[in-house]
Design brief:
This protein has 302 residues and is mainly alpha-helical. It has five helices and four strands; from the N terminus they run H-H-E-E-H-H-E-H-E. The strands form two sheets. It has a two-stranded parallel sheet with strand order 1-2. Strand 3, helix 5 and strand 4 form a beta-alpha-beta unit. The chain is elongated, with a radius of gyration of 25 Å.
Length: 302
């Protein structure tokens, strides 16, 4: 307690600390993590920090926080859905993982530009938005509509993109390290040179697509793979075993399919396949469902 009161505690991690009966009057708690900290009626603490403690430890869904001073507060992971932040001061506040859906923010709200942008994305239609180079690291973008948006070179590391609509989005060179993409719609999304690591949560289908467009799949065993609606432009699929794979609606512009095994491989609605290439693939056993008579009972519906 002496250290907290007499020394700077800025950024200190006080998670789960027992502060019952402590006298924290005048203590600076800028950036301090108060999640799980025990504070009761006997704790003497400035009203600003008691409010911060309440926000991170209790749901503030729909709470009236008009004109609140939350500058420098560590609000990471808090639920501010529907809260009224008109006129509030959030300068320098840590809003990593904060739910801002339905939150009321106006021109009088003081908030860092990064988090105002996040608020705009989750509360306003964001389809076909130019977010190239944007810093969206640690943002809660779950369920956001980012269809067709340009997210090239964007920093999305540690962000929550679960159930987000990223169909047709340009994610080339984007940093998706540690991002949560569970349930995200990645149909026709450009994943070339996107950074994905072992901590990135992404469905196996889309991790496979990422591997194919960023690594040579020459000779790879892709039997039964679901690659439908995938952006496979420029993919190296030479000699790959694609038997029974689903490539319907995949973008195959400049993809190299030379000597690929395509027996019972499903095609249809593909960009980048000339009529000559289609005929060659059919001769090799491929099935094109967008051509009359090409749907075969050999295939088992999936």
């Amino acid at each position: 307690m002496w250290e907290i009161v007499n020394q700077s505690s800025d950024g200190r991690d006080l998670r789960n600390a027992n502060l019952s009966g402590a006298n924290l009057s005048g203590a600076s708690l800028v950036g301090v993590n108060l999640k799980g900290t025990i504070i009761d009626d006997t704790t003497i603490i400035d009203s600003k920090w008691r409010l911060v403690w309440e926000i991170v430890n209790q749901s503030s869904d729909g709470r009236d926080l008009r004109n609140a001073n939350l500058s420098g507060a560590n609000l990471s992971g808090a639920n501010l859905s529907g809260a009224n932040l008109s006129g509030a001061n959030l300068s320098g506040a840590n809003l990593v993982g904060v739910n801002l859906k339905g939150t009321i923010i106006d021109d009088t709200t003081i908030i860092d530009s990064k988090w105002r942008l996040v608020w705009e994305i989750v509360n306003q239609s964001s389809d076909v938005r130019d977010l190239s180079d944007a810093d969206l690291s640690g943002a809660d973008l779950s369920g956001a509509n980012l269809s067709g948006s340009n997210l090239s070179d964007a920093d999305l590391s540690g962000s929550n993109l679960s159930d987000a609509d990223l169909s047709g989005a340009n994610l080339s060179d984007a940093d998706l390290s540690g991002a949560n993409l569970s349930g995200a719609d990645l149909r026709n999304a450009d994943l070339r040179r996107a950074r994905i690591n072992s901590t990135t949560i992404i469905y196996s289908k889309w991790r496979l697509v990422w591997e194919i467009v960023n690594q040579s799949s020459n000779g790879r065993d892709l039997r039964n793979a679901n690659l439908s609606d995938a952006d496979l432009r420029n993919a190296d699929l030479r000699n790959a075993d694609l038997r029974n794979a689903d490539l319907r609606n995949a973008d195959l512009r400049n993809a190299d399919l030379r000597n690929a095994i395509v027996e019972n491989t499903q095609f249809g609605g593909n960009l980048g396949l000339t009529e000559d290439v289609k005929l060659d693939l059919k001769r090799r056993g491929a099935i094109f469902e967008d051509s009359p008579g090409d749907r075969s009972g050999v295939l088992t519906p999936r």
